[in-house]
Design brief:
alpha/beta, Rossmann fold, 28% helix, 17% strand
Length: 435
Amino acid sequence: MSFTLGMRREDKNRWERRVPLVPKHVQELKNKYGIETIIQPSKIRIFSEREYQDVGAQVQDTLSPCSVVFAVKEIPIDFFERGKTYVFFSHTIKGQEHNMPMLKKMMDLGCTLIDYERIIDKSGKRLVFFGRFAGLAGMVDTLWTFGQRLKWEHIDSPFNDIKQTIHYKDLEDIKKHLTAVGKDIKTKGFSKSLTPLIIGFAGYGNVSIGAQEILDILPVKEIKPEEIESIYKNPSNKVIYKVVFKEEHMVEPTSPGKTFDLQDYYSHPDGYRPAFERYISYLSILMNCIYWSAQYPRLVTKEYLKKSFKNKEDFHLKLIGDISADVNGAIEFTEKNTSPDKPVFVYNPSIDTIKDGYEGDGVVVMAVDNLPCELPRESSQSFSETLLRFVPEIMKADFTIDDFDKLALPFEIKNAVILYKGRLTPNYNYINKYL
């Protein structure tokens, strides 16, 4: 077969340097499947134009010759061409208000939209993702924030010299430095005011796995949620206690005597109430790594924090690494998303305000919403490897067929088609209510 694939430049912000397909995979698509590639020029892309040209790609502004256009983040509404197919993270499946004009434009032009987020297997597991890298970068940035916050509180700690992800050379550089920090913890330990140091992870998917991968470089002892309170009786000052929370720890059935059932919770979240608050005050840091939407209970509410913050002696939470970064979501006081140049803010529950930076009364929140872009080369390589196997099937599909049911695509990809020829597909008709 012989088709032309387009790759759009990323321009959502100056930090977005990722690509959906790396040069070696562009070469493989050409040699193995006859798929040509045109990329738009970019001054910030992590892989140079020369690297793509060396494997046979063309570099030009117009992608009009391309039957399918791939990108990473949302696409400006003036970019779309009538009847074209676009593959990217659209951030529309929750009816996100800021992306509805983009979706409407695609509908008006009769475009087809395939969303990476919905490429899943039959068990619902995501197959194409940056999640691990969000976790990796998010944990590093959270540890950096913790060090800065402690310095502001005049507490000396081994975290003082940890940098933000963007200030390391690469992932190997990060791991090398954290290994040295870990040795410092084993030797010097933490001050009494930081002991026990407990870091909780809400969630256990790809994001959480990435975050834990970073933390596990340091001296870590994993404990169960039910052990948290007892740790305070005889804590060690030379380990970080890690605890991973699952859904059964976050919520409980509202009906007396009913036991928690995961599938029942997903199907009937209104039959469950929040139960996570019993753990929060014991944590030093909370890493929010869960997928959240409005039908589910929140992890941490403003009301809870205001009430708990009055008794600071028994409240140890200093920082939330909100990797999921849902505004007013699982963490109700994540009032905004942040960026690598201004990654954190302090939420003061007493007066319900936020202040940029890590100084001031309250709980610090790290809520950078595009964390994988802080590891652009490694995250792009990993993403491209997972996407590669689906590209030939996408490129050879006949998107001119009127009947969506007759569109020949593997299950994993067909499930990810949000729009087909400008119309919401059956799985996504619910988005109409947000339009």
